[in-house]
Specification:
By secondary structure, the chain is α/β, with parallel strands linked by helices.
């Protein structure tokens, strides 16, 4: 019988994959905790939580149990004019822990659409108020998703090149490096003073796809304070940074000025089901609360607030907030810090960056840092051969493991990184 990999090659088109260059996909048959197992019996340490979603490891029995129970009660129902316990309970739970004064939850199915809804909310908010604010400000090299609105507020790159002509214009401020933080803040204020900016959208503290670029809470505080000063809505894209990744439950927990709209997805269900959320303040919601039907937010999809996904998220939250998960996040962060210190002066390490359980290592490959760095495929294949799932962002490797990862697995991954550094020094 043909393997999963062979059958896949005939019928599947994979995401973010140049299919002619990379025609084969590894056939995975099972997963447990931090491990994935392929059809040949090989085990892989999932060092990136399978695209940053699997908070509690693969095949978590507690989440599986809760999903199983919900399947025999209610699998789905329309969410226009109807509601159900898992959706209401999840909204209540999320509003208890989200930063700031969020009071309403709008459900979608992934991070891109959570951002798409946030953009619509911000633009229609001012339209409903009779104000002509149509500009959006974003951060240089941002990534907010792959739908057209989300691409528009993201950095232009090879991801967007074929569609650039169709994307709406946004104002871009420089990424706040250590040297130019004051410049970024000043440019943002220059744009806000004009009075036509509807929203500022940002990945708080960490830009994921841009190479795990990081900046301090003081800069985020300055950005948000300026937006409040000039009555501009703040959209915090916590799709990647949410649910404990950066050390606090949410990246915005590190500052005092709250966002008006928050987008979350990825880890929200512990990696078991697709789900996205756009949360907002009552002020934002009230702009749509009107007898005029044209002021409603006309957005949704067939699987909005799916009960199974909401149940998975409730189970994931229970695990996330438990003492052992808090301790595990602290343990991972401390081990990352120690390892980063150990390799900081290595010949091929340009810089290390860390935020909580996220550790990024920018490798010096004697060519510019980029997503298409010529060493990317070599790095990826090296880790796959070693039984580690590590999907580099060009010459930037990063760890974002499940919170259940063992010390033994972390030690093994660190050792593989050191071995790679030795190999690169001979290239």
């Amino acid at each position: 019988m043909a393997s999963i990999t062979e059958r896949d090659r005939k019928v599947i088109w994979h995401p973010y994959t140049p299919m002619k260059i990379w025609p084969e996909a590894i056939g995975i048959v099972s997963g447990k905790d931090e491990y994935l197992y392929d059809e040949q019996g090989k085990r892989y340490v999932d060092a990136i939580s399978s695209w940053w979603v699997t908070l509690h490891g693969h095949s978590n029995p507690y989440i599986a149990q809760k999903i199983s129970e919900q399947l025999t009660v209610l699998e789905h129902c329309i969410f226009a004019g109807f509601t159900h316990e898992p959706a209401v309970r999840l909204a209540e739970r999320l509003l208890e822990i989200l930063p700031g004064n969020q009071e309403k939850i709008f459900y979608t199915d992934n991070g891109s659409t959570a951002v798409e809804v946030a953009i619509k909310m911000a633009l229609q908010y001012y339209n409903n108020k009779g104000q002509t604010r149509k500009r959006i400000v974003a951060l240089e090299n941002a990534y907010h998703g792959d739908t057209f609105g989300a691409m528009s507020v993201s950095g232009r790159s090879m991801f967007t090149k074929a569609f650039d002509h169709f994307l709406f214009d946004v104002d871009i401020i420089p990424f706040p490096t250590d040297e130019n933080q004051h410049v970024s803040i000043a440019i943002l204020e220059e744009l806000l003073i004009k009075g036509d900016v509807a929203a500022f959208i940002v990945e708080p503290l960490v830009q994921g796809t841009a190479g795990m670029q990081m900046y301090p809470p003081a800069v985020l505080e300055a950005f948000f304070a300026l937006c409040k000063k000039h009555n501009t809505l703040i959209i915090a894209d916590e799709v990647m940074t949410g649910f404990g990744r950066t050390g606090t439950l949410f990246a915005c927990d590190t500052i005092t000025t709250p966002p008006d709209i928050i987008c979350v997805s990825k880890g929200i269900t512990g990696g078991t089901m697709p789900l996205g959320v756009t949360a907002c303040t009552m002020d934002v919601f009230d702009a749509f609360y009107d007898d005029d039907r044209t002021k409603a937010l006309y957005h949704g999809h067939s699987y909005t607030a799916n009960p199974i996904a909401c149940t998975a998220s409730l189970a994931s939250l229970n695990l996330l907030l438990a003492d052992d998960s808090v301790a595990n996040r602290k343990r991972i962060a401390e081990r990352h810090t120690a390892f980063a210190s150990k390799i900081a002066m290595a010949e091929n390490v340009k810089v290390t960056r860390q935020a909580g359980t996220i550790l990024a290592i920018e490798l010096d490959t004697h060519e510019p840092t980029s997503y298409t760095n010529k060493y990317r495929d070599l790095i990826y294949r090296f880790f796959i051969d070693k039984g580690v799932l590590m999907r580099p962002l060009g010459n930037i490797i990063y760890l974002m493991p499940p919170y259940c990862i063992s010390d033994a697995s972390l030690t093994y991954v660190y050792a593989c990184i050191e071995e790679l550094l030795g190999i690169l020094s001979t290239q």
